[in-house]
Write a structure and sequence with these properties.
single chain; 636 residues; seven-stranded mixed β-sheet
């Protein structure tokens, strides 16, 4: 029976021939029934001619309604309605012809009205019946005989999404998954039947289904299922070695319809330690429409997603600026292939190059700047502090100063929670960048009250799936069979998804009036070792047995716990409960401008200790951790 996997769709001429044959036989049967199976009377009534007439008329109607186009094994309500429409039109046409023929031509009907009624009802019944019989037979043969490797699964969620998922799996000729039952938390649904599948209450029946039906797959098909419930499902499935997948949110498949390829594996993003937050705001469109928008670091994880989201707001022009040629080429190619109508321009440039960046501002006159370009990898930057200072501090100053000179409306700096009580060079340079743009904004507010560039900062934690983050690293290590390397058993981090981070940046761009540092309520921090365990389980493996976890010790400049605020900072609420403003101590603009000028004098003199010492003098809370620069703290 393996031929069922490769079974082709029957040609339409076969379907229309079969339908016409069914209608002819139904009409002839109607004659037999009308004349009580008296063959002599049937013959006198020209039953063959009448059957040919009705089947011929319906055949012509079929060509118009295209009722033969439906795939028989995928028959649904829409196909049944189309068949009903075809038979009804054929019936009415012949009924009208009978009236005309009997009134103006002869005293007899072409087809007796009683025969016409019986033929129409019988044809409608048989055409729909044989389609559903073929559909159910195909499903039965597929589930019972298609493959020796057939998998048995259950669907968690007996609502609309679960019913659609069941239908999709049944109809997919290439799927080797057979659904045995539904699970649902609603006790009112317990024991009921959907699509021939019984509904069981909650996860308590999972063991029974594994033992009696050999269940090895579970599909989550519940809208807005809580993170905690997802974790409970994962833990329960882990006990019985059940693979878990999920039906994606309806907005991801509604336009093209759900298919089995869309039902994806559960990802670590689905198991965030908090509910994902949507920051959609229609007023963002007003901020970005008909504007020239510049995104620096456009080819990076945050920058590229930021560009994708900005695209949908139809700015006048989107400028993609990045120093990485290959990554920028890939992003440019993606946008050109996507068919998006928003004009965009890729700019290969280094934010540290004043002349080049000045020419960009002069040529394109951006209205809004999203500054996401930065060196961000803590261990790497700890080894190259001069590069971090040139990029994260001096590069930010170049962009900020040019934004003022060219009357940019808003400048949004993408910062990090590592800027809070920094223990490494990367976090300290990002804090210095925060301080500069905030002090510049305050200076402009004081001296240019009517019109000036508004500088806004967004500060958030780690981003799942970004370049260099633990998630892609863990994925590679799991694929290799381990071990997964975690620096410390107690290390924790805040996490959000890339789309969430970018929504925050856009929201801040609309919300900010200038000078704010926005922080995100990111819920509870996640232990990295727990993240590793969940990723191992989601991959279908077992920690310890299949993939080991090895603790390697904290790296240079690495914290055990990240912070979104320091001890002296307090927060102010905004209109969104998940976004707050950090009330930080400010620095006078002339003071920090002078401190940054000292960096310019130190650059290129091979004095990394001098550079880091000066950075520490700028940011007194910067205390190195597990770093060779700890010695400098004793000199301050």
């Amino acid at each position: 029976m393996n031929f069922l996997k490769d079974l082709r769709i029957l040609p339409r001429w076969i379907i229309i021939t079969l339908d016409s044959f069914v209608i002819f036989q139904s009409t002839f049967f109607a004659y037999l029934l009308r004349f009580n199976f008296d063959l002599e009377l049937v013959n006198k009534s020209n039953a063959v001619f009448g059957s040919l007439v009705f089947s011929g008329v319906v055949f012509l109607v079929m060509l118009a309604t295209k009722s033969y186009k439906g795939i028989v094994r995928h028959t649904g309500l829409k196909d049944s309605v189309n068949i009903y429409k075809t038979i009804t039109i054929g019936f009415l046409f012949v009924l009208f012809s009978n009236f005309v023929f009997e009134t103006f031509i002869s005293s007899t009907y072409i087809i007796p009205n009683s025969v016409l009624i019986i033929a129409s009802l019988t044809s409608l019944f048989l055409l729909i019946l044989y389609r559903f019989l073929v559909k159910e037979s195909f499903i039965y043969l597929k589930s019972g005989f298609v493959s020796n490797n057939v998998k048995v699964g259950v669907i968690f969620g007996a609502s609309e999404a679960g019913i659609i998922a069941l239908d999709v799996i049944k109809r997919d000729s290439k799927s080797n998954l057979m659904i045995a039952a539904f699970l649902d938390d609603d006790h009112m649904k317990e024991g009921k039947i959907i699509g021939g599948k019984k509904i069981f209450k909650g996860l308590s029946q999972l063991e029974f289904l594994v033992k009696n039906h050999k269940v090895s797959e579970l599909i989550i098909a519940v809208k807005d299922l809580s993170v905690q419930r997802k974790k409970e499902i994962i833990d329960e499935c882990y006990k019985f070695n059940i693979h878990v997948s999920i039906v994606p949110p309806i907005n991801q498949w509604i336009n093209r319809g759900l298919n089995t390829e869309a039902i994806r594996d559960l990802r670590i993003e689905d198991l965030l330690g908090r509910e994902q937050i949507s920051l959609e705001n229609p007023k963002i469109k007003e901020e970005l429409a008909n504007k020239v928008v510049l995104v620096t670091g456009a080819a990076g994880s945050i920058g590229s997603e930021l560009c994708r989201q900005i695209m949908y707001y139809n700015p006048k022009l989107l400028l993609l600026l990045d120093f990485s040629e290959s990554a920028l080429y890939d992003l440019d190619f993606e946008f050109r292939e996507s068919g998006m109508i928003t004009p965009h321009m890729s700019i290969l440039a280094d934010i540290r190059d004043y002349t080049t960046i000045k020419n960009v501002f002069k040529k394109y006159s951006p209205d809004v700047v999203f500054h996401a370009a930065a060196y961000k990898h803590v261990p790497m930057i700890e080894n190259y502090p001069e590069q971090a200072i040139k990029s994260n501090i001096l590069g930010t100053k170049i962009l900020a100063d040019l934004s003022v000179l060219h009357n940019v409306e808003k400048f949004v700096l993408v910062s990090t929670d590592k800027a809070v009580n920094p223990t490494n060079v990367m976090g300290a340079t990002k804090r210095a960048a925060e301080m500069y743009v905030q002090s510049l904004n305050n200076y402009l507010q004081t001296h240019h009250v009517n019109s000036h560039t508004k500088f806004i900062t967004t500060r958030f934690g780690n981003v799942l799936g970004s370049n260099g983050s633990v998630v892609p690293l863990f994925k590679k290590q799991i694929q290799k069979g381990g071990p997964i390397t975690v620096t410390h058993p107690d290390i924790t981090r805040y996490f959000m998804t890339i789309p969430e981070a970018c929504q925050l940046v856009l929201e801040a761009g609309f919300m900010g009036n200038g000078g704010e540092i926005y922080v995100f309520d990111m819920g509870e921090p996640i232990k990295i070792v727990d993240l590793a365990i969940n990723m191992i389980r989601l991959s279908g493996k077992r920690e310890g047995d299949d993939v080991k976890i090895v603790f390697t010790g904290l790296r240079e400049g690495e914290k055990l716990y990240e912070e979104l605020l320091n001890d002296s900072e307090i927060v102010k609420i905004t209109h969104h409960p998940k976004i707050k403003i950090a009330q930080v101590s400010t620095v006078h603009f002339y003071k920090i401008e002078g401190q940054i000028e000292i960096f310019e004098n130190l650059i290129g003199k091979n004095s990394e200790n001098d550079l880091v010492f000066h950075l520490k003098s700028m940011i007194p809370e910067y205390k190195s951790n597990s770093s060779r620069f700890e010695v400098l703290d004793r000199l301050n």
